Amino acid sequence: MKYQPLKFNFKRYPSKEINEKSKEFYEIIKTRRSIRSFKKSKIKDIVIKNAILAAGSAPSGANLQPWHFVVIKDKLIKKKIKIEAEKEEIKFYNYKAPKEWLKALKPLGTNPHKEFLEEAPILIAIFEQKFSLNNNIKIKNYYVKESVGIATGILISSLHYSGLSMLTHTPSPMNFLNRILNRPSNEKPFVLLIVGMPKKNCTVPSYATLRKSIEQISTWI
Ligand SMILES: Cc1cc2nc3c(=O)[nH]c(=O)nc-3n(C[C@H](O)[C@H](O)[C@H](O)COP(=O)(O)O)c2cc1C
Fold first, then answer.
1. What angle do CA 86, 201, 113 make, to 5 degrees?
2. Does the pTM of the predicted model rise above 0.90?
3. What is the DSSP code (8-state) at residue 50?
4. Does residue 104 line the site of ligand 1, with CB under 6 A?
5. Tens digit of pLDDT for each residue in 156-207?
6. Are 187 and 27 within 8 A, CB to CB?
7. Does residue 29 have its Cβ closer than 6 Å to ligand 1?
8. Which residue has the CA at smallest separation from atom 22 of ligand 1?
9. C-alpha closest to that of 117 among 85, 165, 90
10. Which of 33, 98, 108, 125 is the most buried (most CB within 10 A)?
């Protein structure tokens, strides 16, 4: 099949507006924090749908879009996920995690109990697809982690921009998610995003407000 290039409809902004827009985005995104205490309030499907559509617009290796998003609202499924995640987290905190890792986690004050998995109105399980299946034919995907990482970043940015809060959660290993969510074996859980609104008295670890400076995170040549 021959693919004809499309004319790119690029929206041009005056330079001043570009500066303002970059500042505006930074001011919004810098207020994002991971929260671990969620209100039970409902979130409209359309908001989650738009965020997933935004994530689905991410660049990906050879445009193979190697991702799948499972939106979980069902209470029973959330409960099953909490039970399995806590099993893994108990092993992690009790004997699996190297001392250095536990030391790095200390300022967060996290523990194996994950109430938020049942409290939060929405969980989004993000799966990476090592390969895709088309009529039972395996199609190899490229740069899977990079692509799914970028899509997840866009998903988080969209949800934050829309006024929601989140936690990126990674109980390790997460393969119980395939079983509970009935996902095929070509998919591997990437992260579990917990989405909702913070409880009124919700706190966040103070140390994470310390962001590296522009000099630390960038080199300009
Ligand atoms: C890939 C990834 C995995 C994470 N896994 C967990 C997790 O399992 N549990 C948790 O409480 N926080 C988890 N976090 C959240 C980080 O602890 C948090 O992003 C970091 O401390 C910075 O804080 P902030 O998100 O509020 O800026 C994870 C973050 C990322 C990016």
1. 10
2. yes
3. H
4. no
5. 999 999 999 999 999 989 999 999 999 999 999 999 999 999 999 999 988 7
6. no
7. no
8. 208
9. 85
10. 125
DSSP secondary structure letters along 68-123? EEEEE--HHHHHHHHHHHHHHHHHIIIIIS-HHHHHHHGGGT--S--THHHHSSEE
The predicted pLDDT at position 133 comes to 83
**How far, in Å, are 98, 193, 210 from residue 104 at the CA level?**
10, 21, 15
| CA-based nearest residue to 129, from 144, 115, 119, 114 | 144
Intra-chain end-to-end CA distance of the chain, in Å = 42
Q: What is the pLDDT of residue 20?
A: 98
- Is residue 187 within 8 A of residue 92, CB to CB? The reply is no
Length of the chain: 221
With a 6 A CB cut-off, is 157 part of the ligand 1 pocket?
A: no
